[in-house]
Amino acid sequence: MSRLFRRSGLVAGLVGLVVVSGGWSTSAPEGADARLSAACAWEPDPASPEYYAIELVTTRRVVGTGRATGTAEVTFAPSPFGVALAPDGSYLLDVSIDAEGLPEPPDGSVFVAWLTSTDLSEIRRVAPLDGDGRARGRVAWNKFLVVITYEASPYPDPARWSGPVVLRGMSRSGMMHTTAGHGPFGRENCATYGY
Prior knowledge:
Strand content: 25-35%
CATH architecture of the largest domain: Sandwich
Mean pLDDT: 74
Order of helices and strands: HHEEHEEEEEEEE
C-alpha cells in the first residue's frame, strides 16, 4: 500500500497526505508545492478541439454546390459559473458554422443555417449565412444535425426549411447509432454523407 502512495507522489502532494510508517501525515512530500503550482497554472485552450468539429458534406442537390465544404465548430457556451446550462439542465453549446465553395445566390435568395435534433422533431433556424459563409447559433441538444439550405427568402418559415438541403453534418455524439439500415456486412460510414 505504501508503494502505491510513493509512486503517485503527485496525487499525494496535491491531496497533502502521505503514508508514513503505516500512519497518516499532513506534510507534503518534497517538491509537491512546485507540482501543485504547475497543475493550477494550466489554462484551457479556447479553440474547439478537432473532435468537436462537425464536417459539413454537400448533397449536390443545387447547381454549383458540388464542391462546397464546411465545418461547424462546437464549443461550450461561456458562463461566469464555468458551465452554461439550459433550464432543463442540458449543456448549452455554441455552434460556429463556416461554409466554403458556395456560389453567390441570385437576388433575394440565401443560404440559411439550421440546427435540428437527429429525428427532425425539433428544428431551429440559426441565420442566413453572411458574405463569408458564416453563421453562429446555440443549441442545448446532445445529438443534433447542422443543415444548410437554399431558400428563396432570407426569412423562411422558422418551423421548417422549404428549400433544398445544400450541406449537412452530424454531431459526433449522434454518430453512435445502430447499423440497421446498412445490412450485416455494410462498412459505409454515415459521416461520408453527413448523417
